[in-house]
């Protein structure tokens, strides 16, 4: 499976499939979409109105990566379930942190 991000100058782009109005906020692992794109599955309790679910997603990713939410922005998919988050910072350490998060998710039953 490929990685759900693309490194770029000044950070990376993270591809996410978001489920709003969930019973909990969580990153759930990786999924391959029908078109072959690898995405991070995420769910948030927030409703998809007025950007609330998008803001909750940014907060959740920031918490998991231990990075300020101000370094994360929505680059694409404001009204779509599939989103692209732009994370500013050094791509190498951000990618390592994402790998660690995915490894922890895979290790849980």
Automatic annotation (TrEMBL):
GO cellular component, as recorded: cytoplasm
InterPro entries (UniProt xref): DUF167, YggU-like_sf
Pfam families referenced in this protein's UniProt entry, alphabetically: DUF167
Family as reported in the entry's similarity comment: Belongs to the UPF0235 family.
Family matches, as PANTHER family: UPF0235 PROTEIN C15ORF40
Protein name per the record: UPF0235 protein CCR94_04340
């Amino acid at each position: 499976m490929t990685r759900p991000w693309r490194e770029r100058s000044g950070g990376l782009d993270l591809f996410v499939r978001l489920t709003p109005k969930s019973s909990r906020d969580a990153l759930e692992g990786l999924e391959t979409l029908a078109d072959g794109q690898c995405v991070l599955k995420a769910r948030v309790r927030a409703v998809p109105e007025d950007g609330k679910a998008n803001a909750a997603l940014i907060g959740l990713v920031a918490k998991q990566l231990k990075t300020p939410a101000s370094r994360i922005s929505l680059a694409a998919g404001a009204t779509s379930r599939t989103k692209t988050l732009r994370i500013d910072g050094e791509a190498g350490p951000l990618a390592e942190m994402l790998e660690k998060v995915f490894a922890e998710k895979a290790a849980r039953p």
